[in-house]
Every structure is written in C-alpha cells, then in structure tokens.
Amino acid sequence: MSGRLAVVGIGPGDPALLNEQAKSALADADALYGYRAYLDRVPARQGQSRHASDNRQETARAAAALAHAARGANVAVVTGGDPGVFAMAAAVCEEIEAGPPALRALDVTVIPGITAMLALAARVGAPLGHDFCALSLSDNLKSWEVIERRLDAAASGGFVIALYNPASRARPLQLRRAFERLARHLPGSTLVIFGRAVSRPDERISITTLAEAGAEDADMSTVIIVGSAETRLIDRPGRAPLVYSPRKQTVPAGSGGSSRRGGA
Amino acid sequence: MSGRLAVVGIGPGDPALLNEQAKSALADADALYGYRAYLDRVPARQGQSRHASDNRQETARAAAALAHAARGANVAVVTGGDPGVFAMAAAVCEEIEAGPPALRALDVTVIPGITAMLALAARVGAPLGHDFCALSLSDNLKSWEVIERRLDAAASGGFVIALYNPASRARPLQLRRAFERLARHLPGSTLVIFGRAVSRPDERISITTLAEAGAEDADMSTVIIVGSAETRLIDRPGRAPLVYSPRKQTVPAGSGGSSRRGGA
Q1: Nearest residue in B to A140, CA atom
Q2: Per the domain annotation, does B263 fall within a domain?
Q3: Is some CB atom of chain A closer than 8 A to the CB atom of B94?
Q4: How many distinct structural domains can be found in chain A?
Q5: Looking at residue B55, what is its pLDDT?
Q6: Tens digits of per-residue pLDDT, B168-179?
C-alpha cells in the first residue's frame, strides 16, 4: 500500500505550454480527479479512470483523490494553471492535515504549471515587470473587508495587481467594487488588461484603463492585470501594443502613502 | 527584413519543466542571447550563434538582441524562470520604447515559464495558497525606501511574500533588513522557506521561521517565501513536512492594520 498523489498544473490551456513532468504524471496515473473542464483537456488513456466534479467542489475532490491514493493507487489531481495559485494544492494540503493519519504517509508531489497571470503577461509584453501581487476576488473563503484591505495595501504600495476569480454568476458585483476601491489610489489612466481563455482558441485580450474598465467584461475564465501608476503602453504601427512595467522605480517613497485613503 | 525576437523562459532549471513553445523557440532561433549560466542550459545546435553576457547586463543584452533581430534574424533571448518576472521581458520592452522606430515593427513574442516561486512552492506544498506578492529586494533600480514601503504593505495586508534577488555579493545586508522589517508586522513563528537552485541537482530547500531565519543562507540563486500569519506546517513521519497557506482566511479585517507600525 504505497499510494501516490500528484497535483498537476496543466497551464492556461494550450497543450504546447505543458511541461514534461506534467505530461508524465498525467500519463502514469491510474486515476484522474478534476474539474470537468480541466479533465476534458487531458487526452484519454485506456485503463485510466476519470472522476470529474464541478467547480467549487475542491474540498470533496481533494478528499476523494487522497482516499483513492491511500488505497494504493497512483492518482493525479488535474488543475488549470499552476496548482499552487488559487487551485488544488492548498485544498489537498488542507485535507491531509484534517484527514486520517494515513494520508500523511502518502507520496504527494505538486507539479508546477504556467499560471494565468504569467500567460496573460507574456501575451502583452511585461506588465508584471516589477513587484506585483496576485489576489483572488472570491469572497467565498474570506470576507470582502479582507479583500478591500489587500486592494488598498497593494495599490498604495505601488504593486502591479493580478486579479483572479474576478467574477462569476454568483458574484457579479465584486469586480466593479474592486475597480472603485483601486481608483482611490491609482489614476484613471492606469492600464488594465483583461485576459479571457488565454492561449486557447477562444482567447480574448483587451487593454483599457482603470477609468474605462467595465466589470461586465470578466467571467470565471478571466484574469485581470491592473498596472501600477508606472505601467506603460508602447504603440506599434500594424501590431498590437506592448504593455510593460519598467524595472526602474521612480515613484518617490512617500507618494503611495499620502494617497492611501481607504486603509486602516 | 522581417526580424523576430522571442523572449524565452527556461524555468527553474530542470529540463523536464520546459514547455514545447519554449523548446521550439530555442530550436528555431538563428541566435541566442542570454546570461551565461542560462545559455549553458540550452543544448547546442549547429549554425546557431550564441551571445553570452554577464548578469546585470540586461539593458545592453536587450539592445543587442533587438538590433540583431532588426537585421532580419530570428533571435531568442534566454532567461531563467519566467521572462516576465524580474527577468528579460521588461528590459526588452524598455529598449523597444527607447530605441529606433524600426524596433516597433519587429515580431516580438514572450514565452512563459515556471518562475522560481512557483517551483519552490510546488516542492514544499502550497505556501502561495492564498493571496501573495512577489517582490525583488535588489535596490539597483529602486530605492530601499520603496522596498520597505512594499514590505510593510504586503505584510500588514496579510499577503504571503516571495522575495526575489534576496542577496548578492554586492548586497549582503538587504535580506537581514527585510526580515527585520517584516518582523514589525508578523509573529516570529511565521514560516519562511529558502529555496536555492530549485529543481537542479544542487537544489537546497530549508524551512524555518522568521525569528530563526538567517540572511547568510541566501545567494543570487535563492528565492524565499515568507508565509502569512496563517501559513501552516504539516509534520509527516518519514517524509518532509508540507507547508501551505489555507484558502480560508480567518484573520479579522482590522488585525493587519492595527499592527502596521512602519508605514507611511
């Protein structure tokens, strides 16, 4: 009984962004667990069982996959992007800590992948070119007050901000409120990049400003990068513009603090 | 004259973490530009020229690679990790904006890779499991005051913090000062993970606490993840412990703000 569990990141969607470790782990597994849309991206293999579940079933999925591995199987949990960024690796760890002691004996590995913000950044230039934050706008697992405090801290600190889980049918208003919050700290001209289904056939990328950004442009497949006040756009005749955040930081040390209106 | 330039992320070091897009771009290039240690990781190919340069030569390297592409060649700039995270993509954008108009006509692509913090996080569990920041401790391109302000913002906001460029021979004291700064906001028991040469044969990973963390354990090949106050460690008999940051945030909204002593 030496079960194994691999939490595998399959990246943003394009199979050409998958690495060899991930491919091997997917090919070697006796059983795959995952959100239905992610499992659909993994080629079928004879003799490999598939256990699809709906979004938001992370805890139950992690528990079922761990129990399966504890029976001696080689199990892979399939997750989009990188398993460690708002995905399944934390849910698996939570279940190992909360579950029966046998789960601590399992061989658990996490195989990294290209997370959505890196894929989007690469498509437009280098918007994450200086210090940045990644923040989930879902308030299923934390209060909206915590989210607002973090938006304040990130924007007033001069970080570029990647927003994950910006909207869903259950939470249509979060993103609008987040943009309003960020506008307390950042000029309306701050660049905002929407990336939906990045690297997939239905990819949709748009570049706008904080003043013009509309919350209706986001869904569950969208990641958003909000620049810092220093993020720049390069127009290119006949080509898509580039967006980047310069490595050199010229903002005076006190400027973020003095505009910090909403914080503690 | 239709030159092309690809900025290619080769990940943390293990070739099995490279994706197909990166491999193709490296194989197809007429010329490779990069920091010597990264170029050494790319298999040699007949007829492909190599242009190695030292660390800290990012601006000159970007300008030379762009000029080469503008002469009609297919050029790849090789960078460790992900090109968009404290690497070459921003330097290339800076040179496109500052350089001759012809550079804006080039076909420029960025191919994402596994950045160091994701590779390290995967090796220990899920320490980036909730909101997090990535911050470079190098003060070559920004003032130490900006760095301190961002450390304050990130720690008081409850973000997990990944520290890039924590130390070099020219900057031995930065990391100690950063830990002292973070200790204003975070308990001494906060988990800290050092990852050196992650995924490479000489990989060295250690887990300690903010109170015990020593700055002498870091060099230019090290990335450090400082947990939030909620980051947890799971002991496992006969196995390395897991470290993770739970998805559920239980910290009351005001707790970070009230301990914010160092900010603006």
Answers
A1: B248
A2: no
A3: yes
A4: 2
A5: 82
A6: 777 778 999 999
For residue B257, pLDDT over 70 is answered with no
Domain termination residue (choose one: B114, B144, B164): B114
pLDDT, tens digit, for every residue of B9-32? 999 999 999 999 999 999 999 999
CB of A123 within 8 Å of any CB in chain B?
yes
Interval A108-162: pLDDT, tens: 999 999 999 999 999 999 999 999 999 999 988 899 999 999 999 999 999 999 9
Q: How far apart are CA A243 and CA A191, in angstroms?
A: 8
List the A31-35 sheet strands across, edge first: A49-53, A31-35, A74-79, A4-9, A107-111
Indicate which CATH number applies to the domain containing A58: 3.40.1010.10
% of residues, chain B, pLDDT over 70 = 94
Give the CA-trace dihedral at B250, B254, B259, B261, to 10 degrees: 140
Parallel/antiparallel/unpaired status of strands A160-164 and A222-226: antiparallel
Compute the distance between CA of residue A90 and CA of residue A96 in angstroms, rounded to an integer: 10
- Kindly tell me if the per-residue pLDDT of A192 is higher than 80: yes
Pick A237's closest partner by Cβ from B17, B104, B238.
B104
CATH of the domain at B184: 3.30.950.10
| HEC secondary structure over B113-166 | CCCHHHHHHHHHEECCCCCEEEEECCCCCCCHHHHHHHHHHHHHCCCEEEEECC
Which of B18, B135, B150, B260 best tests the A interface by mutation, with the highest count of A CBs <10 A? B150
- In this structure, the answer to whether residues B254 and B221 fall within a common structural domain is yes
pLDDT tens-digit readout, B47-72: 999 999 988 899 999 999 999 999 99
Contact predicate B157/A153, CB 8 Å = yes
For residue B153, what are the domain limits? 117-258
Q: What is the pTM of this model?
A: 0.94
Q: Of B132, B125, B123, B135, give the one whose Cα is nearest residue B198.
A: B123
Sign of the four-CA dihedral B161, B19, A200, A53: negative
pLDDT value of residue A255 = 47
Whether A134 and A18 map to the same domain: the answer is no
Taking contacts as CB-CB distances below 8 angstroms, the residues of chain B near A150 are 131, 157-159
**Six-digit token pair at A218?**
């986001």
Q: How near does any CA of chain B get to the CA of A87, in Å? A: 8
Does ipTM come in above 0.90? yes
Query: Helix, strand, coil: what percent of chain A each, to 5?
Result: 30, 25, 40
